[in-house]
Amino acid sequence: MTLPTLPAGLSEIADRYDVLLCDVWGVVHNGRESFRDACEALARFRAERGPVVLITNAPRPQAPILEQLDSLGVPRAAWSQVVTSGDATRLLLAQRAPGPVYKLGPERDWPLYDGLALQNADLDHAAFIACTGPFDDVNDEPEDYREAFVGAVARDLEMICANPDIVVQRGDTLIYCAGALAQLYSSLGGRVVMAGKPYPAIYDLCLSEAARLLGRPLDKSRVLCVGDGLPTDIRGANAQDLDVLFIANGIHGAEVVGPDGLKPELAADLLRQEGLHARWAMTDLVW
Q: What is the full DSSP assignment across 257-270?
């Protein structure tokens, strides 16, 4: 079992990299407030080393995510570009226009469909499902959708999943994301197409943006991914053969962080169980 190396801060390893691809929720903020030390670390890397591309499984296009980052106090100095799962999803939705589409998710996600010429329909008359999450992510659970999904699977409706995350932290609470619904849909025999992490489309967008910002071709050995989610951030980085810094005090914090801090043996064992690896690990992102 190979233990991840535990740098005291990003400054110890920053000179190895030209670009950061950094997860947002769980690393930069928790949905209620930004993490000051993490924002400072990203701003220092950007000022001293190179571009910081925030890569998020938020199922909306970039604009409302920028508003959210501003509202949570994430300084614009901390990032160079933001790429969302919603950006990747729009490419998949455009290929399926005019639909009709059944929109599964809260109304705040509807900017995802702007300008795509998709017709709306109820589930009984839709040609496919676009899932951005539960209708009510505070109270709904995946099992609430089982009966509707059974009927949709019987009609062989494809689901486009805009956010592969299963859960995410909002403050101190874990809430279900679109990935949890897609997981249930797939278990019932349904066809699912994923857009965000850990799938290639969103990384293709991020690496393209990073190269544009650098002004030269990327050396992938000098790209560092930062994230807290094993099935999304870590798996995605591993699939792209990119170095990864595992931030332990996110959704897996209860499993690998004790009273005395991060336990590298626990982190390595958790990663091993999922067939994953991380070159580096920190409790929280700091400079």
A: EETTEE-HHHHHHH
pLDDT band at 168 (very low <50, low <70, confident <90, very high): confident
244: helix, strand or coil = strand
As a whole number, mean pLDDT of residues 80-106 equals: 93
Structure tokens at 281: 């690990």
**Contacts of residue 239, Cβ cutoff 8 Å, sequence gap at least 6:** 198, 200
57: helix, strand or coil: coil
Other Cβ atoms closer than 10 A to 156: 10
Name the one residue in this structure whose structure tokens are 């890397």.
Answer: 45
Q: Taking 70 as the threshold, does the pLDDT of residue 1 lie above it?
A: no
Rounded alpha-carbon distances, angstroms, from residue 107 to 58, 132, 192: 14, 10, 22
CA 26 remoteness from chain centre: 10
Whose CA is closest to 91, among 212, 195, 177, 204? 195
Q: Is the pTM of this model over 0.85?
A: no
Tally of residues, the chain = 287
Of 191, 201, 138, 133, residue with least CA distance to 163: 133
> In terms of residue numbers, what domain contains 117?
87-194
With 0-12 CB in 10 A as exposed, 13-18 as middle and 19+ as buried, what is 107?
Answer: exposed
**Residue 136 domain-assigned?**
yes
Tell me the CATH number at 141.
3.40.50.1000
Does a structural domain hold residue 134? Answer: yes
The SS3 of residue 94 is helix
